[in-house]
Amino acid sequence: MFEPVLDKLKEARKIVFVTGAGMSQESGIPTFRGKNGLWRNYDPMKIATIDAFYENPKLVWEWYEDRRRNIVAAQPNPGHNAIAKLERYKEVVVLTQNIDGLHQRAGSTKVLELHGSIIRIKCTVCSFQDYVVSSFDVLPPICKCGKILRPDVVWFGEPLPQDVWTEAIAYANSCDVMIIAGTSLLVSPANTLPLYAKQNNALLIEINPEDTMMSVDMNLTIRETCSNIIPKLTEIFSKLN
Ligand code: NAD
Question: What is the Å distance from ligand 1's center to 34 Cα?
Fold first, then answer.
């Protein structure tokens, strides 16, 4: 499976993963798009925008609380675990669009959360930020300053945290291999990361059971799931060492 790019993989020093919702699908967390994606049942513009939030904060909070409970109960899958284990052999950075924290729970030490985290909250007005440790008695929860708290996630139309994004571009610009796993590459600007890697002549590998808009730009596309394939990649590196 990796034979066509084995030499480049052996030489690689810095490996960057760009991951999306498909990475956690085998942990039981639904994706947004693709087969069985969440957006088949919900209209994103009614849930994941600041306008939707101000229009009906209780509804948006209920949706996020359901997702958060599902995420907290989920476990990292063999794909997450294999990425964490790869750090024994290579410099590994994970640039994730996921908000579920599963890469960190698997043991990955360098994870940049491009779209925030569902297990954090922040105030809509003041600078208050915290982790969510239990369910809220009343939704929407209220900050000490009296304003509404919101999930610390990036909604459609909102900018990414600038420091995180700048660092992500620097990693994409300087990697030898980029592995794009479980993302439809439809959400901007995260979907531009492979272009930065390509400029650096990095090897691009896509792991996704379905085609994406950028599949044609990849050096290798593997039409398989993350938990089936990423452990095989880590095994290759373990044998080289
Ligand atoms: P997406 O839902 O748009 O696309 C998911 C992709 O994963 C699809 O291309 C699908 O074919 C692929 N896929 C499904 N199962 C897979 C598997 N087992 N292995 C490999 N690939 C698989 O997701 P996206 O590209 O991440 O973008 C949508 C937004 O969704 C992001 O902003 C992200 O924050 C948010 N999101 C996050 C989570 C999470 O944190 N787990 C879950 C849902 C959505």
Answer: 8
pLDDT band at 240 (very low <50, low <70, confident <90, very high): confident
Ligand 1 is surrounded, with C-beta below 6 A, by 20-22, 24-26, 29, 31-34, 37, 97-100, 115, 181-184, 186-187, 207-210, 212, 225-226
The active-site residue, picked from 115, 116, 185, 202, is: 115
Is the CB of residue 105 less than 8 Å from the CB of residue 57? no
pTM of the model: 0.95
- Show the domains of the chain with their CATH numbers: 1-27+76-115+159-241 (3.40.50.1220), 30-73+116-153 (3.30.1600.10)
Structural tokens at position 16: 């960057």
Span 106-157, pLDDT tens digits: 999 999 999 999 999 999 999 999 999 888 999 999 999 999 999 999 999 9
Is 80 one of the catalytic residues?
no
Residues 6+ apart with CB under 8 A from 180: 17, 18, 194, 204, 205, 206, 207, 208, 214, 218
Mean pLDDT of all residues in 20-38: 85
